[in-house]
Amino acid sequence: MSTLIQPRKxxxxxxxxxxxxxxxxxxxxxxxxxVLWTLSTSLRTPSESFNxxxxxxxxxxxxxxxxxxxxQVDMILLVLNSxxxxxxxxxxxxxxxxxxxxxxxxxxFKGKNALFSIVLATMMVPVQVxxxxxxxxxxxxxxxDTLLALILPAIPTAFGTFLMRQYFxxxxxxxxxxxxxxxxSPWRTFRSVxxxxxxxxxxxxxxxxxxxxxxxxxxxxxxxxxQENYTLPLGLVTLQGNLGTGSISVVLAGVILSMIPALVVFxxxxxxxxxxxxxxxxx
Amino acid sequence: xxxxxxxxxxNPTTTAAPAARKRSTRQNKSMAERLIAPLFLAPTVIxxxxxxxxxxxxxxLLAFFRWDIISAPEFVGxxxxxxxxxDPTVRVSFLNTIVFVIVAVTLQLGIAMVLAVAIQGRMPNWxxxxxxxxFFFPLILSAASVSIFMGYLFNEQFGVxxxxxxxxxxxxxxxxxxxxxxxxxxxxxYVWQNFGFSFLLFVGGLASIPKELHEASALDGATGWRxxxxxxLPLLSPTVLVASVMAIISALQVFDQPYVLTRGGPGDSxxxxxxxxxxxxxxQLEFGRASAIGLVLMMLIMAITALQxxxxxxxxxxx
Amino acid sequence: xxxxxxSGQGNSTLARAGDLSRRTxxxxxxxxxxxxxxxxxxxxxxxxxxxxxxxxxxxxxxxTSADAAARQALVDxxxxxxxxxxxxxxxxxxxxxxDFFSKILTMVAxxxxxxxxxxxxxxxxxxxxxxxxxxxxxxxxxxxxxQEYFQDVHPSLIEAFMYRGSLYQLPLDWNAANMYLxxxxxxRAGLDRPADDxxxxxxxxxxxxxxxxxxxxxxxxxxxxxxxxxxxPWLYANDTSFLAEEKATGGDWFWDRFYSKDPTRSLxxxxxLWETPNAEDPRxxxxxxxxRELVAEGLGVRPEGGGGNALVGLxxxxxxxxxxxxxxxxxxxxxxxxxxxxxxxxxxxxxxTQRHQFGAAGYAIMRTAKDKDAAWEWVKFCASKPAxxxxxxxxxxxxxxxxMVNQSLYASTxxxxxxxxxxxxxxxxxxGPIPAPPxxxxxxxxxMKNVSVAVxxxxxxxxxxxxxxxxxxxxxxxxxx
Lengths: 283, 319, 481
Description:
The complex is a heterotrimer of chains A (283), B (319) and C (481).
Chain A lengths: L5 H6 L5 H26 L21 H9 L2 H32 L5 H10 L5 H14 L7 H4 L6 H12 L4 H8 L4 H12 L1 H16 L3 H6 L8 H8 L8 H32 L4
Helix pairs in contact in A: 2-14, 3-14, 4-8, 4-11, 9-10, 11-14, 13-14
Chain B lengths: L30 H32 L2 E2 L7 E2 L3 H8 L1 H31 L6 H12 L6 H11 L6 H8 L11 H29 L3 H9 L4 H29 L3 H6 L11 H10 L4 H29 L4
Antiparallel strand pairs in B: 1-2
Helix pairs in contact in B: 1-12, 2-3, 2-12, 3-7, 3-9, 7-9, 9-12, 11-12
Chain C lengths: L1 H6 L4 H28 L1 H4 L12 E6 L2 H6 L1 H10 L5 E6 L4 H14 L5 E5 H11 L4 H6 L1 H10 L2 H5 L2 E2 L2 E2 L2 E7 L1 E5 H6 L11 H13 L6 E3 L2 E2 L6 H6 L5 E5 L4 H7 L13 E6 L4 H15 L7 E2 L5 H6 L3 E6 L3 H7 L7 E4 L10 E9 L6 H12 L1 H7 L6 E2 L7 H4 L9 H8 L4 E2 L6 H16 L3 H20 L3
Parallel strand pairs in C: 1-2, 1-3, 8-13, 9-12, 15-17
Antiparallel strand pairs in C: 3-15, 4-5, 6-15, 6-16, 7-13, 7-14, 10-11
Helix pairs in contact in C: 15-23, 22-23
């Protein structure tokens, strides 16, 4: 990339490298500053939490707010719930999307294009439009106020199906031909040849599902009632407390704790996540 | 549109044209293959039928009733839809949503574009990785927790933002307690969290522009800005289209930020369409009205998407 | 997963090895998911939640699981008295009462409502009209048992839970909007604690004095934007309200039976009715204008929505001088490190009257309750003095029983003038509850959204905001709740 602009550099009065880096640095500071402040405030005692000028670096950390979080909400249960919900949604999406994506990419059947268009069109349906009937449906299934109520409706994925279709279309055809010459059944061709090759694509679907549902707020707000079934974002918002007795350091400690799993994914799966997020751009 | 940029597992044979082979040329289908497609599709298709298609139809039905779940539903014709026009709260919430989308999406795309172009320049690789990671980071956070800490930062009396402004001599801004301030905060918090997504798309788009084109235009004497407008932007236009479609669809559904930051206030200044759906359904038990508002929102999303793709035929330059 | 991805990039042998590990990975994930589904099935279906789907009396309260645990002693005591009635406390988290009620409504919608709900004044009429069972027959039946409770509880608190002549709840805790004052801010301003009958002009003067003797990030008056403690105490003091207040007839059966000798008997009615918007009343406009001037002068903050979750920290760190709150605040300030002398409390200032606003809460029996007699036993038990002493060991709210609001409750926490809390009702017997008609959610939304607009602009803006409040209230009261 750096060679890309070299010819220009010699003759153009365009903003220099220093200015560009300055712009990027300001943007990075504005992006990371609030997070650093959150971290350092969570490590201060409640009475110091409003100290100005603000501290961005946690000197003399005080961990009492973190202990408070565990006293006030069942943090372990919140994490367990969020992990369970996101794991099952992710695996469910990976599986169903791989199957459907494969069918749309490599199998032929009547009405394929029409069906695919319908699947794509559901991407435009906001979850808020269907939430009331889904709520009734869940009630009819006897699953009101359960984690399954969060999981089941989230498994069919239009975006994931689309991604997997693209992925399978990108795989070479030779394997299928070789496999069919070997007399392999279509199922075996999928299971032994294509599914393993599509693992990176499925990883993208899985990590996207994780990122979205780990942070999801609207559906859990409506579909869960017992706090035993709360997921992290919901538990955090209620940690803000009732009648003004919440402490800002405790709330921020909860926020920091909730970031940890997402941070792990950020560190180890950033590339996959990045590819997944941008994959949609290449319809 | 263009071929998938998804990374495919490298294999000597992948160098052949990807994806282009038509599957339908095959004539003889075995019984197994005939059966297998429905089986593969079943989980997704049945799931979508149950959890998306049927609920939409139910929503359409529900929109003509007044129903609070406790008593029997009462048929009210189009009055739920009429409410959308006549009820100032609902009307304002739609206007807010539209204004929000315009401002937030413009900012999001603008900032992302500036940064994506800036990061193309010469710099050590670790610095590039640092910037990219920093801009990406907010995407992994939940909008609810972001809104929680941003709420403290924007506190009028005790927040860090006003303290910083006071250092440079700006008087305290009533961020969350005046209409304009609250709307600005919701936009800023939303853009803060989401610009990284458009940034990634633009970086990907810029990387796919053949550098020969730039070199050629540079040899023709094109200057930086003119080169950007005449060469880069047209080549980037498919990415810009996709980025704007995605940004608009997600901005139309904004809920978490105003719910946590302002609960829609002050006044109706940050009440969005989705917030009114939530309040109608789950606070006021007006399920019919909530359905009607939801359907209008859905039609809005579909109309905007269709419009964008129509416009794209005229303005987007495909390679 | 990234490692698998990179292992696929190489020559074909490596690719085949990659295939193997991928297949393993897929299998591991699949097995993991199946294992999680099987192993966590009770978690996924909520079957592991203690008491779920049991026939136990399901009591819903607003709070965290810690709050539910704190009530265990209460449950144990009840169980020893009524071994045949198992009780399960279900704590429901919510940022405020509106959140809590919306969760209860969701439970009703989901088809598994609780049997008994702890409901505050904010929701009293919503429940009375739609969800709750009147206590009238039980009160008549057990009049002898319950007489003692009413003797100890001020009738104003009871009247707040009368709806159209029937009583729906026995309030257990309550709070008036009194005025908390930061002692150090007063001392800096060279002022003593104001007199009992201080006026709103005195209040302004105190705020000015505090402002002029403190610098930096200090705001004398902090208030929040909600039904309790926001603009309403000022409206009540100015002898008005944003909803016209009427009283229902009826209820004489109750008052004659339990409060016949009370000096305020003649004031009592069949309950409050708020059916007509009154936002454009000149006194309402006057009140908003007063608050607007406080804000404009820098004496008061622009109110934030919600409970003001930073409030305790701000008050404890002496960044605010005064705020309206009730006895519920004492414990929070104590825990935030404020000494008994660091703060004090006084009546809300007088304007045309010194009528106070209060909120209270108690258990309501749901109409859908499986066993209403058992539910009544719980309600009756919780109103007994031993049960209330178990339920309210610390001053994080004010008990409705006069005999419990005593020196020992506030001994270690302060404030010095804790007597103000209960004296409010005796001194100002017309003090009224939070104005919350059955359409509470819509009414509170309408109020909250117009308050900030009204107090942060010009005088003319107050008028237009009140016009819009009037219109919003008309719509809110029209809706089906």
